[in-house]
Amino acid sequence: MSNKTWKKISIYTLGALTGVALSMGAQSFAADKQNNNLPIESLRTMAEVYAQIKANYVSEETDEKLLENAMKGMVSGLDPHSEYMTKKGYDDMKASTKGEFGGLGMEVGQEDGFIKVIAPIEDTPAERAGVKSGDFIVKINEQSTRGMTVSDAVKLMRGEPGTKITLTLSRKDAGKPIVVNLTRAIIKVQSVRSHLLEEGYGYVRVSQFQERTVPSVVDAVLNLTKENGTALKGLVLDLRDGPGGLLNGAVGVSAVFLQPENTVVSTKGRDNKQAMLLKARPEDYLLAAGTDPLENLPSEIKTMPITVLINSGSASASEIVAGALQDHKRAVIVGTRSFGKGSVQSLIPVSNGGAVKMTTALYYTPNDRSIQAVGIVPDVEVADKNRTFESREADLGGHIGNPLGEEDVKGGVVEHTTPAASEPAPKVASEPKEKVKDEDLSSRRKPDPSKDEQLRKALDLLKNPAEWQKSLGLAASKSTTDNKTTENKKK
To answer: Is 10 tagged catalytic?
Structure first.
């Protein structure tokens, strides 16, 4: 399928566990498939089980419920990111990519039969109540989440703004469950923030990739340049704890720093066949005809030193941007290894208004590296001493292995050379009784290199061009060499 054809029928989105590619028609996925013989014996057995339930189960169940459960089980059994979505779940997922929706404000997935927090979204009820990346939601109000799908959990957590909800969390470093009381709100996500760190050096943070992210990044660069009074000398792009978002947003943000002919990402589907190749050009990041937001960028943005911050919470879209800038030796990647979600989910609408979300391909960086279950390795590793536990793609049961044969990289307890002072786990967390002032929230978001070792290292590299140049692509070069060695051993 050509890029042009795919572009016409699809809107691409990503996420740590819930990202998908929204296909506006299922025909494209079926066009090249041969009709396989139906597994008559298995279908007969399925019909037999269905009949036994209808005849003998302790309570009478509707046909709709039984068949919906069968579809959910069939799809969710494929891998952690595949799922059958009801009409309500499908509508909620589409709303979440618009940048404004009702709920608590966090990206969630499923692990070990429970709902897991991938990352709380900045300035939302979830973050203000102390919900952390890696927390397991074991109860929503008084309902256990064991065996609950992501869509069903999201449905329970969303509701009318101003209504209350209680979550019971299990945290790795807490001795007992943590009860969190929250108030639902309209979640207005500010996906891009910027700050002038010091004269000549800017900072741009992307917390999610949404419809407005690319023009917002452009605005941030222009505002920083204006505030600086002259061209910037360097820029820190912070993608830490960025759980994903729209694929065209990831391509567009990459295009801010790359030349139009540079490849950003490609995908390969069944039988390792290439399905898509996206470059840093308008036709690959604009979803509709219109003005290219990158037209007004200052020319120096394509050549000035860039550093990119990542950690184990950086997933999907964040990993695509980091991988593209790393492979093209356009930025030095600083921090810790990323999450490792390198799979493509296609959301195929079905006749009842729902959809099937299933993995149809894997992402590859410009140098043909797969990040699946491995992640992006930083060129300069700097640990976050405040992070005591990390969770990654390879921790998920039933995850897809790396197609290049690289060993899975799991998360776990983080051991620091100089351990941070331990703090007792909170017994009960809740939203502040007094309303947090907007200016207080803003001050919490102000990047401070004196208190952030990863940010300080990223800034130091920008101020030392020789060291920055020497660090470019270090991890990518090593990974490529290791891959070739592995392939030679196989031969």
So the answer is: no
